[in-house]
Amino acid sequence: MLSILNKKLFAILALSLFTLTNSFPQQKEIVAKAGSVSITKEEYVKRFELSPRPRQDNYFDSTYLKKELVKTLIAEKLLAQEAIKNGLDKTKEFVDAYNFMRDFYLRDMLYTKEVKSKVAAPDSALAEGKERIRRTINTKFIFSTDEKEITDIYESIKKGASFDSILAARPENDEQKNTAEVTFGSMHKKMEDAIFSLEPEQVTPVIELKEGWYICKVYSVSIKKSLEEKDLSKVKSVVKDRVEDKIYHEFYKKFFKGIVVTADRKLFNSLFEVVDLFLIGNKHTLILHQNKFTIYETEIEKIRKLLDKKDLDKPFIKFEINPVTLSAFLDYMKLAGFDFLRTESGYLKRRLNNYISTYIQNQIVAREALKRGYDKIPDVAVDLIIWRDNYLSNLMMKQNYKSQAVTDEDAYTFYSNNSGIIPQPDEVKFSKIVTDDLDVIQKVLEDSEKGADFTKLQEQYSKIENDSLYHPLNQQGDLWKALASMKAGEVYGPLKLEDDFAVIKLIDKREGKKELIESFEEAKPQLRNILQTKKMYEQLDEVTAKLALDNGIQINEQILNSIKVNMINVIVFRRFGFGGQQLAVPYTPNFSTWYEKYERLKKALSL
Asked: pTM of whole model > 0.90?
C-alpha cells in the first residue's frame, strides 16, 4: 500500500504543462504566405519552440533552423490546400483523426470555461497556507479499510493504548521505518487539516478518505523562520489547485446529473469475448510497460476481424442523436489505444467497462462543447487548423507515394543500366534513450543541453540497450524520418514511439553499399521499392515547387529574422482539461528540399 502521507491530492483532470494563449490583435505579423493562407508570427513561434528538432553538442545556427522551418510550414500549407481540392478532407482516415484531436480541444475549452476561469485564491486560504508552509511535521499513520476496526483502534488509543505499539504489529508499519515529513500541500486537505491542528505526541481522530480510514500521530514539528519567494509561489499554486478541484467536482455532479447513456449489452459482451479470446491467443506478444499492457491499431484491426460483420454497423453507444456504432468505437480504440494491467477475464471485463464509461463521459462533454460552438473560439480554431493542415499534408504525401507506379520494365531498365549493381539504402548508427516517463525525457533533454555524455545518460535512463550496428534508412516511421534529416552528433527528441518516448543521437551516417545481384527476379522487389521511393521524393519536390509558384508564396525575411526563439528543447506534450495528453503541436519533419526546385522554376519564368 502506498503511503498517503507521501502522495499529493491531484485533481482528476490533468492540467497543462504550459499555458498556450493566442492573442488576436487587429493586425498580426505575417511570417509567410502560401496562397490564401498565412503563417503568423504566433503560429511560427509555437511550432518552432514546441517541436523537437536536431541539436548538435556545440553550436546551433538558429537562423538556418528558422529558415528550414518556415519552408517546411509553407509546404505543409500548400499540400493541405491541394488535399482539400482533391477531397481528402472528406476521407474517413482524415475525419477520424481530426475529430479525435478536435475532441481534446473541445473538452479542454469547456473545462476552461466551467472550471479554470472561475478559480481564484481566497485571502483566508492564502493566509492559512502561508502559516502552514512554515512548518514541517513528522508523522506516522495507522490505516484500515474496515471502519469498525479503525474505530475500535481509535477508542483504544483514547483510553491510553500506545499508538506506536499498535502500529508495530500492523502491516503498514513495514513502509514506515522512519517518520514521514509532511508539508503544506503534500497530502489530502482533509488529512492536512487534522495533522496541522496537532502538537507533538498528539493523535488525529479517524480520518475517512476514498481508499479507507486513517489515524495519524505527530512526532515533531519544525518551523521555518522566514518564507522565500518559492514558498509563496507554492502556497498560491496549492490553494488554486484545491479550489480548482472543488469547482470541478461541483461542476461534474451538476453537469452529469440525469444524463444516462449506455452501451448495448449484447454488443459489449461480444466485444469483450473477442478481446478476451484475442489476448489469450497473443499473450506471448504483449509487452509490459510501466506495469501495464497497451494494444493499438494493429491489434484492434485483428480484433475487428474476429467480430461478426453484421454487428459492426449496429449502434453500440446509445446516444439519442448520432449513436456510435461498434465499428466507430473500434476506430476510436485504434487512435486512443486500450491499456490494461492484467489479462484475467474478470479483470479485463471490468477494465473494458470502465474504458467505455470514460469514453461515454468524454463524448458527452465534447458534444456539449461542440453544441456551444467552442470549436469556433479563436484559441481552439487556430490550433485545430494547425492539426488539420498537418493531417492533410501527410495524406497528400501518402497519396503521392502510392501513385508512383513502378513497372517490371522500369525495374529491369534500372537493373540493366546499373549492370546488376544495386545501391543499398544509406545507413545510420545511432543511440536512443527510451522511456515511458516524461520526467525522464525532460531530464535527458536538459542534461544534453548542458553537454552531458549521451552514452552515460543512455545507461542511466533507457529501458532498452543499444546495439552498435548500422541500420538502413529505408524504414517507415518518425524515428527513421528524423534520423534521415540529422547530422552526426545531433541530438533529437522527444519522439513518440508506440508505447514510449525517445531521445536519439546520431552517431554516424554512411552511404549505402553497392551490391552485385545476379538475378533480376531476386532484385525486383528491392528495385521497385528504391524506384518508388526515389520517384516519390522527386514528385513531391516537383508538386510542392509548382504549388509554391502558382500560389505566389512570400517570406517576410525581416519579421523572420527578428523573431527571438527559445532554442531549448522542451517536452512537447500538452495535458488537456478532462484528461488526456497529446503533442502540443504536430510532429513535422524537415521538408525544405522543394525550395531549390521552386527557385529554379521561378528563375526560368523570369528569363
From this structure: no
Domain ranges in the chain with CATH number 3.10.50.40: 135-223, 408-530
Tell me if 39 sits within 8 A of 74, measured CB to CB: yes
* Domain boundaries 135-223, corresponding CATH code: 3.10.50.40
Is residue 303 a contact partner of residue 311, using CB atoms and an 8 Å limit? Answer: no
Reference 584, options 46, 100, 67; nearest CA is 46
Residue the block writes with cell 536538459 = 446
C-beta of residue 37 within 8 angstroms of C-beta of residue 388: no
Let me know: does 83 contact 393? Beta carbons within 8 Å.
yes
What confidence tens digit (pLDDT) does each residue in 238-290 have? Answer: 999 999 999 999 999 999 999 999 999 999 999 999 999 999 999 888 877 77
Identify the H or E element spanning 449.
helix 438-449
Do 32 and 38 meet the contact criterion of CB atoms below 8 Å apart? yes
Q: Please give the grid coordinates belonging to residue 446.
A: 536538459
Residue among 76, 94, 184, 192 nearest 141 (CA): 192
**Which residues on adjacent β-strands are paired with residue 317?**
263, 324
Task: Write the CATH number of the domain with boundaries 408-530.
Answer: 3.10.50.40
pLDDT of residue 19: 36
CA dist 351 and 292 (Å) reads 12
Summarize pLDDT for 518-573 with one digit per residue, the tens.
677 777 777 777 777 777 788 899 999 999 999 999 999 999 999 988 766 555 77
Distance CA 508, CA 74 (A): 30
